[in-house]
Design goal:
The chain has about 270 residues and is an alpha/beta fold. It is built from eleven helices and nine strands.
């Protein structure tokens, strides 16, 4: 069995698709297949796919019902042990990225590396959880990077494919269920993998993202647990903001110590 299936979905993003395909075609590893799912593009996307067809294991261009419908079509065609979702506009940073990720790969359900993106003109390396244990609270607040993740294909058979009723957060829902609720093993590789396209739907439609996350949490977590997590998360945001001001945090810690000592003195009376 091939180790990896790289899946690219695209719709009318010829420029982004070109960069993505070129980065995959340049990989030194041969232990992967490449699948392109196009949503019936009317720009130059098909010409690009045709030009690189010798580097593509399977491709199709037809109308689909959204991002996750396209991803699920790719999963159903995949033969690799793991799937990576590298959407058009994202690209692998170096020709040896796949080879390095697959070399001495740990036994796990999900393996992930680093993504690079530009924020305010600066190149930022984002390491997600950087190898520490991922908790349910982590996934309540955030997610595992999708483009840098190798996801065991058997997980989709076990837990179900991506929820096609969602437009933005179905991959996060999948992580919430598989890792947050069922403790599937996750391994981190400190490898710069993917340049992330910040013009994607998940980066530009923040309100829809918030609405879909709320809907998923209400359907996935029992009400008493969700209530606790909402309270903890709110307090966590406050603490995080306070910590950003060193003087403020120093004063708060010392005030806490004073109050703690006063409580101890009162308890002795």
């Amino acid at each position: 069995m091939l180790k990896l299936s790289i899946i690219t979905i695209n719709y009318n993003n010829a420029a982004g698709l070109l960069g993505t395909i070129e980065s995959v075609a340049s990989q030194t590893s041969s232990d992967f297949e490449y699948i392109v799912i196009d949503g019936g593009s009317t720009d130059e996307s098909l010409a690009i796919i045709e030009h690189y067809k010798d580097n593509i294991t399977y491709w199709i261009s037809e109308p689909d019902q959204g991002i996750y419908h396209a991803m699920n079509k790719g999963i159903r065609q995949a033969k690799g042990e793991y799937c990576q979702f590298l959407n058009s506009g994202d690209y692998l940073l170096k020709p040896d990225v796949t080879e390095r990720m697959l070399r001495d790969m740990p036994q796990c359900s999900i393996s992930y590396g680093n993504k690079i993106r530009e924020i305010g003109g600066r190149r930022i390396v984002e390491k997600s959880y950087a190898g520490r244990q991922i908790t349910l609270m982590d996934l309540y607040r955030s997610t595992i990077f999708h483009a840098t993740a190798y996801i065991k294909r058997s997980l989709f058979e076990q837990y179900g494919f991506y929820d096609e009723s969602l437009k933005i957060v179905s991959d996060w829902k999948f992580y919430l269920i598989t890792v947050g609720l069922h403790n599937e093993k996750v391994a981190y590789r400190d490898i710069d993998m993917v340049w992330f396209d910040t013009q994607g739907i998940s980066s530009t439609q923040k309100e829809l993202d918030r609405q879909e996350r709320t809907e998923v949490l209400q359907k996935t977590l029992p009400a008493p647990i969700l209530s606790d997590y909402q309270a903890f998360a709110h307090e966590g945001v406050i603490i995080k903001r306070l910590k950003q001001n060193k003087l403020c945090w120093f004063l708060i810690l010392n005030l806490y110590r004073v109050l703690f000592r006063l409580d101890k003195l009162r308890s002795r009376e």
